[in-house]
Amino acid sequence: MDKGEAAAAETASTGRVNSDLRARVLSALVLGPLVLAIVWWGEEPYTALIAVGGLVILREWFLIVSAPRRGPVPVIGYVSVLLLTILVHLSYELVALAFLVVATGALYLAAGGGRTGRWTAEGLLYAALSVAALLVVRRGALGEAFTFFLIATVWVTDIAAYFVGRRLGGPKLWRRISPKKTWSGAIGGLVFGALAGVAAAAVYGHLNLVDWLILGLALSIVSQIGDLAESAVKRRFGVKDSGHLIPGHGGLMDRVDGLVAAAVAAAVLGLLLGGPLHEPVTGLGLM
Fold first, then answer.
1. What pTM did the predictor assign?
2. Which residue windows are coiled coil (predicted)?
3. Mean of pLDDT over the chain
4. 40, 45, 141, 238 — which has fewest CB within 10 A?
């Protein structure tokens, strides 16, 4: 390749990067306020949003793992997500858990068992955990505040990691799983994500900001682990994006993988401490 061809290739690459960046920014400007407005609106519209999100996540998972597209598999999967959403919304968590066990087994068998059945059934588990965790964090007296805190922490972690990583570059975080992610981006995302969470807590009048900072740092780390986990699944199946739903971001899973991981961690923390999730760290003096 001569210098002219190299320059043309570099220009084309730069154009693609700038186009991708514009798409990411525009998507964020449109979807961000919409999601936040629904969180503020109330539990019912929020539950509807999460139900739709759970269905999309399951569909994208099915596409990634090449699950059967016809027959009982999609019917069992999508109906199960909707029923689980209703059960968790009505606070029938134990019933939802029992139903999930049965539905997962049925989906495994419907997909023919073996490797295909296992990966298909794991998709239902992932979608169900996504739905349940995101519904639980919205529940309670501080549900709205904690949800905004969680969203601010995770989304700014993702955005800051992208921009800091592009700006500073440096050693790769885990080249085999996600070739573009860098340590500089991960650290930048951690710092700015935690600070964004603190800002969201302050807006809601929670002034014990050191505790919120600690929680934000922990959830930022978990969100980045969730991002890497989804990248590992996609790489396992040779897929670059989970879909093409969101310009500049790929599929919904590509956008909410970190949010789902952080929400699950917050829900588990609340359960381990024996209190409602709106006081997820009562025993540690947080919130």
1. 0.85
2. none
3. 84
4. 238
